[in-house]
């Protein structure tokens, strides 16, 4: 093979931003919504610089993908070493030891004192779809019950499971059948655990025989739904109903996994075991990798060839994932998540007397959210939330908005963020909230 001097064009990392916005609008469809009008040139840990040289503090982490920060040296080195070996074989064609070793690690680290098996995919939506496939194969049943406000992907089954219409579902139906939704506990909006579980039971009276339900799927902390934690008694209630009717319990940990909530998985914080866990995002530190882990006998239900994918468990991403697990251990990121999250919640709570728009501050570890409402009416205030986001960006802090009503800011700072940068981000956040109020 001949050598090459190929280099990525320097112009790809050059401005002005406005030119690239125009080129993007001409070359890509409007259905791919882009939050920012600037383009990335480089990033390191929790900081990002655009092609015009402006610096931003990243409290979004590529939507929860960068718990270990941008370009962690261990991850970069692991990928470089794998690049020198091979980039692809397709695990189903020629397997490689690193995939098997990573599956062993996930089996060991996930909650539940029972035999487990793990398989890898590429995206979170793939993990969810395959978890449903596995549940259906294991139970011989078609039905699935998901929850309002949940997000499970943009594929057709993912959209069917997702409990939010705009922007994810509008104009794309019809969706796969045998998918049903129940309310998710949301005390701030008057939905209790008892309300949610009662509606699940009502589905069995009005919509589907429980003996046709393969699985419940829920997020331990709803992501797009507004960082709403699942109460422990709700998860225990689902487990009780599932056991009564032979239904499997799937925890979608795609956004909650890998130290974000203060434990490796959020389900470590419940006394209730689940049967299957889906994961992705921060597993591979920015490279595409996802997976499903579950009870061995359930995972073995699919026929050989029924699971997999051309790029599933790509060796570069697997190498990165091994580095991510090492970083979580060696840098104590579970504990770090709790320390950072507590500092953030304290700062937001201290602001409430001066910013009565703050309705609630919530979330475990560093999966923290602040929800805004109109203090005069108590109604969700999406406009105020957008002003906070805009004011923060003008000061160099990137924030993400979520929630069914678009009135929640979620915080997804890298867990490796330096204290000085984190404190700078908190100062900007405070200034942004007060400016939005003014």
TrEMBL record:
Q: Which GO terms describe its biological process?
A: gamma-aminobutyric acid metabolic process
Please give the start and end residues of each transmembrane region: none
- InterPro entries per record: 4NH2But_aminotransferase_bac, Aminotrans_3, Aminotrans_3_PPA_site, Class-III_PLP-dep_AT, PyrdxlP-dep_Trfase, PyrdxlP-dep_Trfase_major, PyrdxlP-dep_Trfase_small
User: Which Pfam families does its entry note?
Assistant: Aminotran_3
Q: Name one GO molecular function term.
A: pyridoxal phosphate binding
Query: So what family is this one in?
Result: Belongs to the class-III pyridoxal-phosphate-dependent aminotransferase family.
Q: What is this protein called?
A: 4-aminobutyrate--2-oxoglutarate transaminase
Gene for this chain: gabT
């Amino acid at each position: 093979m001949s050598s090459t001097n190929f280099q990525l064009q320097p112009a790809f990392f050059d401005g002005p931003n406005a030119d690239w916005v125009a080129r993007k609008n001409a070359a890509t469809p409007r259905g791919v919504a882009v939050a920012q009008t600037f383009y990335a040139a480089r990033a390191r840990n929790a900081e990002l610089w655009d092609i015009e040289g402006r610096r931003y503090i990243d409290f979004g982490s590529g939507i929860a993908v960068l718990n270990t920060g941008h370009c962690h040296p261990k991850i970069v080195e692991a990928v470089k070493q794998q690049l020198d070996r091979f980039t692809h074989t397709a695990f189903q064609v020629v397997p490689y030891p690193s995939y098997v070793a990573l599956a062993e690690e996930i089996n060991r680290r996930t909650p539940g004192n029972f035999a487990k098996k793990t398989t890898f995919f590429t995206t979170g939506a793939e993990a969810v779809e395959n978890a449903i496939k596995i549940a259906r194969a294991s139970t011989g049943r078609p039905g699935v019950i998901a929850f309002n406000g949940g997000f499970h992907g943009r594929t057709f089954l993912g959209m069917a499971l997702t409990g939010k219409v705009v922007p994810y579902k509008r104009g794309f139906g019809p969706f796969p059948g045998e998918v049903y939704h129940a309310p998710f506990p949301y005390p701030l909006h008057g939905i209790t655990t008892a309300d949610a579980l009662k509606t699940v039971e009502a589905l069995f009276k009005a919509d589907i025989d429980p003996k046709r339900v393969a699985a419940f799927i829920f997020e331990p902390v709803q992501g797009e739904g507004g960082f709403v934690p699942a109460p422990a008694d709700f998860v225990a209630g689902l487990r009780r109903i599932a056991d009564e009717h032979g239904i499997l319990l799937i925890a979608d940990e795609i956004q909650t996994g890998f130290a974000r909530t203060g434990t490796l998985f959020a389900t470590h914080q419940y006394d209730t075991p689940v049967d299957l866990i889906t994961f992705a995002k921060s597993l591979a530190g920015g490279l595409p990798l996802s997976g499903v882990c579950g009870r061995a006998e359930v995972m073995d239900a699919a026929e050989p060839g029924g699971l997999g994918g051309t790029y599933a468990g790509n060796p570069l991403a697997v190498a990165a994932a091994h580095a991510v697990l090492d970083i979580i251990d060696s840098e104590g990121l579970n504990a770090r998540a709790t320390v950072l999250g507590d500092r953030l919640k304290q700062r937001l709570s201290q602001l409430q007397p001066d910013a009565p728009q703050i309705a609630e501050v919530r979330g475990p570890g560093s999966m923290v959210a602040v929800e805004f409402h109109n203090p005069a009416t108590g109604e969700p205030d999406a406009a105020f939330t957008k002003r906070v986001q805009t004011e923060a960006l003008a000061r160099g802090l990137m924030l993400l908005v979520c929630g069914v009503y678009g009135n929640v800011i979620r915080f997804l700072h890298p867990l490796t963020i330096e204290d000085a940068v984190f404190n700078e981000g908190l100062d900007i956040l405070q200034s942004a909230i007060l400016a939005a109020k003014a």
